[in-house]
Amino acid sequence: MSGTPSTILAGLVRRFGLLVVVTVLGAAAGGVYGVVRTPTYRAQAYVVLTAEPGEPFAAVNFAQAYGRIVTNGPVAEAAATALGSRDGLSAVTATTSPDAPVIEITATGTEAKRTADVANAVAKALADYATARKAETRVSASVLAPAVTPAAPSSPKPPLELAVGAAAGLLVGGLAALTGVGRARRRTVATAVATAVATAEQDSGHDIVTMAPARPRTVWASASVATALVPVPPPQAGAGPPPKALAWSAAPTEPAVAPPGARLERRAGGAGRRAAGGPSLERRAGGARRRAAGRTGPRRRHAAAAAGRTTEDRRPCRRHPQGVAVNPLSTVDNAVPGGRPVSAWSVEVRRDDAALAEIRPEWTDLFGRCATATPFQTHAWLTSWWRTYGRPGRLRLVLVRLDGRLVAAAALQRQRRWLCSVLTPVGGDLSDFGDVLVDDALAEPAARALADALAHVSGWQVLDLPETRPGSAAGTLLTGAWRGRHHLVTASLCLELPARGLDDLVADLPGHTRKTVRRRVNQIRKLGLDVRTVTAEEADRAVGDLLALHTRQWQGRQVNPEHVRAGFARHLRAATREMIRDGQAELFEYRLDGQLVASSLAVVGQDLVGGYLYGAEPSLRDRVDITTLLLSDTLPLAVRRGCATMSMLRGAEPYKLRWRPAESVNQRVLLVRGGSPRAWLYATAVRARRAAVLLAKRRLPGLRALRDRLRWRRASGPGR
User: What is the DSSP letter of 476?
Assistant: First the structure.
């Protein structure tokens, strides 16, 4: 930076003054909070459960169950009696582990001794309650480690509060700086481009067509091409509207639209192109300012003069009678020595709402050639979701073809999150898995082509796939081909069983569990349920019955709020009907004496069958075990379809653990554009939020119950 010290200081203050002030204020607020807050103490006691010989998993299962009743019911009453009052019991939490029969009981309070007494009283009450039921459960409990009086408060911690306040201030100040708060508004790129286009039209006498479809005088920007302005004749009478799909091609014989005989030149570094003899847009330092020019900058002129050539001597792009190729897929080898084309790679980006419906045959064919495809990438599921939840103009359907055949595809939507433009998968939170499709026979080159195509799609900073399976195409191939930064963040836990017959699966269970499950299987067989699969023509009626049963079984309890909305019913009806017709789903109905008592929807992917949704009459639970009933038909379905896995999908509920399932942790895939502070902030916030969630699960399990109650209240409002 040049200038006097005073001007340098003024520039620094103008650029970073607001950020520094807000950071200091945040640190001061954190420090004051740490000083004035009342000290709180934490004490932990541990209870261990012991099962009888031959029951290694019974203790773990009952630890999960007992952990849920620590803060209410007879355990809390017994602890209150021992303490003489209920003071401090409302702040007690219990934490369990999925692989250890230990329950951690944590008490929080403002008095150190009282806090330890509360933790010990609850631990003893729980141990007594579990031991009293040993004859029924074959599991006993005892206090493994009593709580000790804490020597120092657990909070506040002034240094930590100071650091948190400073970090919060830094984040707020950074966001304010990104949005331009405190700075004089500069001339935006859009304004500059609009002025450039107007000047170019006046100088050339032609209309200027930009590469953004259906939005005249809007620049289509990418990582390597700033803009492409092409002079074309005025539109003829009766001509149709411009196409809604934006396409480019890497094949010399399949160029994008350009005027016959036009000669386009690539600027140094690939910053821009122009029609020879016409106007162009040049990128200034940092890419922040551009100008309309029929001339070259001083540095470029001087370099050309030193080399003994003029700016018109720069090497032009390939001529073609029909036009020129725009944004070639440079990572895909398209020719042999000598320049003869071997194969034609092409990319199409569609944004119109009818795009998904129109590519059904191609999408279904590619789905069958992608081994990692899950049921939530089927055409029926995505199309139904988009018709129900999609918003016009937000679809980004990226299609990569080789010799006209679809070899890679991504169905995405553009959303605004945290001041950042994000691409997320079509299917949203209703899909347990999100992914892209890549042809197995062309995995690496197709993934590279898809990564390059995504990089050339404008208007986004981060691609966010919240739930991908381990080994997914996005988490392996796409991240490997992406040229920028990427992050893999742990997401939801799924429990999976091998696709085997029910009898074979039961035979591998521990002794007592095996006897219990066999008894439940015999109960189901003796009940004489009539089981049938639903046809595609019956799907609308059957899905309505399924949702009615699902609502009744959750009556008075916390249910997924979306499952009780009319939009979800429309989506599920349309998706199930088409998926059954395509062999990608089966809906089982269970009748007793002619009355429908249970219903279950299983979805089918390339290598897994997933139990997506079920409903049962509450009275049926008193007669049979619902999980055993559902698995008795879903497991054989996986075997018939040749799948390796039967997935219980997201969630680690205790009733699933008795089957000894394998744990499969989903991954959140983040692809970040280079040079975007907003993208960096978004990725950092996602990772920090995940770390906070994991910490809260371990230390504050009550927060999850509070979140579920709030969701249930929202679901009970308008829109149900």
Answer: I
CB atoms < 10 A from the CB of 271, how many? 17
The answer to whether 367 touches 380, Cβ cutoff 8 Å, is no
Range of the domain at 24: 13-37+156-178
- DSSP characters over 32-45: HHHHHSPPBEEEEE
Q: Is residue 69 part of a domain?
A: yes
CB count in 10 Å sphere of residue 144:
16
Looking at the structure of the chain, the number of domains it has is 3
The tens digit of pLDDT for each residue in 536-595 reads: 999 999 999 999 999 988 876 667 788 889 999 999 999 999 999 999 999 999 999 999
Count CA atoms closer than 13 A to 513's CA, side-chain side.
23
- Asked whether 596 and 462 are in contact (CB, 8 A), the reply is no
Q: Is 603 exposed, middle or buried (0-12, 13-18, 19+ CB in 10 A)?
A: buried
Structure tokens at 36: 């004035």
H helices, E strands: number in the chain:
22, 26
The Cα–Cα gap between 617 and 620 comes to 5
- Residue type, position 35, single letter: V
CB of 64 closer than 8 Å to CB of 87? no
* Cα 249 off chain centre by: 30
* 26 and 59 within one domain: no
pLDDT in tens, 374-415: 999 999 999 999 999 999 999 999 999 999 999 999 999 999
